[in-house]
Amino acid sequence: MEEDSSRFDRDRVIVPDEALPNVEAPSAAFLVQLFVVPGIIVSIIVFVWLAFHWLAHLGNDPQGYVRTLRRDNEGRWQAALNLANDLRGPGGGALKSDESLAVELGKILDSEAASGRTAEQSLVLRQYLCRALGEFSTPAALNPLIARIDSNDDPMVRTAAVEAIAVLWSNLLLGEKQPSDASTVNRVVFKASQSVDAKLRSASAFALGIIGGDGTKERLQNLAHDEIPDVRFNAATSLARLGSKEAVETLREMLSLPDEPVLDDLGQAKRYRRAMIVLNALRAMALLVDSIDEVPEGVLEQVKKLESDPVADVRSSAIALSKKLSRHQSAEKVLLNSRGLEILKE
Predict the structure, then answer these.
(1) How confident is the model at residue 70 (pLDDT cuts 50, 70, 90)?
(2) What is the pTM of this model?
(3) How confident is the model at residue 306 (pLDDT cuts 50, 70, 90)?
(4) What number of helices (H) and strands (E) belong to the chain?
(5) Is the pLDDT of residue 168 over 90?
(6) Which residue pairs, CB below 8 angstroms and at least 24 apart, start in 221-225?
(7) Rounded to whole angstroms, how far apart are CA atoms 101 and 69?
(8) What is the pLDDT of residues 57-67, one digit of tens each?
(9) Is the pLDDT of residue 50 over 80?
(10) All residues at 6 or more sequence positions from 249 whose CB lies less than 8 Å from its CB, including other chains
(11) Stretch 19-35: mean pLDDT
(12) Measured between alpha carbons, how far is 255 from 306 in angstroms, rounded to an integer?
């Protein structure tokens, strides 16, 4: 009997419903995880995309930037950054000459500075507003930058204003729009070059070479012996632009910087920085030679050594400058020989 019972248990057909657990209605927590949470994530992604899409198209409406920047929210710096990029972009020509836009941005910068805010968002906003103003080609952008440089604002903001005024000044010179207050610009940048902040001094050394004015060469000669390398290098580049032989010593220091080994990202960054310094020195030396019409002693030999530099851009620039200097030296010898013959004939 027991054998029949066990055979019955083995041969029993199992109904599918009996093999499944009891079905219960889904809980509210399960529904939230299944539908609500993914919906929130998708909504956030769409919102972020729409926000950036909206900011990216503000360039079609200059006053849209102004409206956005006047709003008191943490995202205003993004609009200022986008504006600076649009001004530098291929379609920025019309924006650069928009005097009313420059005036409005200047007012926003003045207002933000007067607010007394010291939070990082406010500092970043002021820096980007300075950079945006620097991209203009109208004198209307000058006064707000002058005010930031000649203030007790954060050194980072003042540095951004100095860098911006150098770009703006270049734009004005290219457009033959020399402003009447050149002496004021020279005065405030000259004062900034005496700051204890090294980055501000460095930016000022570069800007003085573009702006010029009374006492500029003398001040740059002092800065060319600054204890901070970046200050010295920018001062020497500016002196070369102004045709001063006082630039030679520091330019040769820049040309002699050794290549940096690349072992990690830091090494790569150091190599890139050194390459930029050497390239700037090569360009500055070319400008100086054209200006003073002679090749400083020992420079050609130093440039020739860079023809085998590990960085391709340095090699190509050194080769080009070597050819230029060699031609110049050959012309100098021909001129000296001809003068010697004239003296002998006399």
Answers:
(1) confident
(2) 0.75
(3) very high
(4) 19, 0
(5) yes
(6) 221/246, 223/193, 224/249, 224/250, 225/250
(7) 12
(8) 444 566 777 78
(9) no
(10) 224, 236
(11) 54
(12) 8
DSSP state, 225?
T
> Who's near 100: CB < 8 A, 6+ residues apart?
none
Q: In this structure, what token pair is assigned to residue 38?
A: 């993914």
Distance, CA of 142 to CA of 50 (rounded, Å): 34
At 118, list the tokens: 């010291």
Contact 212, 170 (CB under 8 A): no
Containing 102, the helix (H) or strand (E) segment is helix 99-114
Mean pLDDT lowest for which of 31-45, 148-162, 290-304? 31-45
Percent of the chain past pLDDT 90, that is, above it, reads 55
Long-range contacts for 210-215 (Cβ within 8 Å, ≥24 apart)? 210/166, 210/169, 210/170, 210/173, 210/238, 210/241, 211/165, 211/166, 211/169, 211/182, 211/185, 211/186, 212/186, 212/242, 213/182, 213/183, 213/185, 213/186, 214/183, 214/186, 215/186, 215/190
Nearest-angstrom CA–CA distance, 317 and 321: 6
Token duo for residue 64 = 């849209």
Q: Three-state DSSP class for 176?
A: coil
Q: What pLDDT, on the 0 to 100 scale, is given for residue 87? A: 79
C-alpha 35/C-alpha 322 separation (Å) is: 70
Cα 236 versus chain centre, distance: 20
